[in-house]
């Protein structure tokens, strides 16, 4: 599985060794959310190949605050057949005081 993560290492620019430092099991929540929120459709497909739809659905329901663009969140809610509290996921691109 570690080999499959090399193709999405660009999503982990903030890590010293990018995807090389990730543990596929221990870091699956971060891996799944980064791929779904910031990756391409190919990256999302890889997540489904690596973890399976049930595991992706389970981890998706554990919010990562402020990571998702609204349209991306809607897409994955639809594809996974679930609804989540959007306030826990959506990026605040306009700032707290924007009207």
Write the layout of secondary structure elements.
Elements: H1 2-6, H2 28-38, H3 41-51, H4 53-60, H5 70-80
Notable traits:
46% helix; globular; mainly alpha; 5 helices; 0% strand
Helix/strand order, N-terminal first: HHHHH
Helix content: 40-55%
Q: Any idea what the shape is?
A: globular
Count of β-strands: 0
Low-confidence stretches at least 5 residues in length (pLDDT < 50)? none
The overall number of domains is 1
Percent strand equals under 5%
Instruction: Output mean pLDDT.
Output: 85
Separate helix tally? 5
Distance between the termini: 45 Å
Structural class, from helix and strand content? mainly alpha
The radius of gyration is: 14 Å
Largest sheet: none
Explain what you see.
There is one protein chain. With 99 residues, the protein is mainly α. The chain has one domain. It is 46% helix and 0% strand. The protein has helices at 2-6, 28-38, 41-51, 53-60, 70-80. α2 packs antiparallel against α3 and α3 (41-51) packs across α4 (53-60). It is globular, with a radius of gyration of 14 Å. The mean pLDDT is 85.
């Amino acid at each position: 599985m570690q080999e499959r993560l090399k193709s999405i290492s660009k999503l982990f620019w903030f890590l010293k060794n990018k995807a090389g430092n990730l543990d596929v099991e221990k870091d699956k929540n971060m891996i799944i959310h980064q791929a779904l929120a910031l990756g391409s459709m190919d990256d999302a497909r890889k997540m489904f190949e690596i973890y399976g739809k049930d595991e992706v659905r389970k981890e998706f329901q554990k919010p990562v605050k402020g990571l998702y663009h609204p349209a991306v969140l809607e897409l994955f809610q639809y594809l996974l057949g679930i609804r989540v509290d959007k306030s826990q996921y959506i990026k605040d691109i306009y700032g707290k005081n924007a009207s």
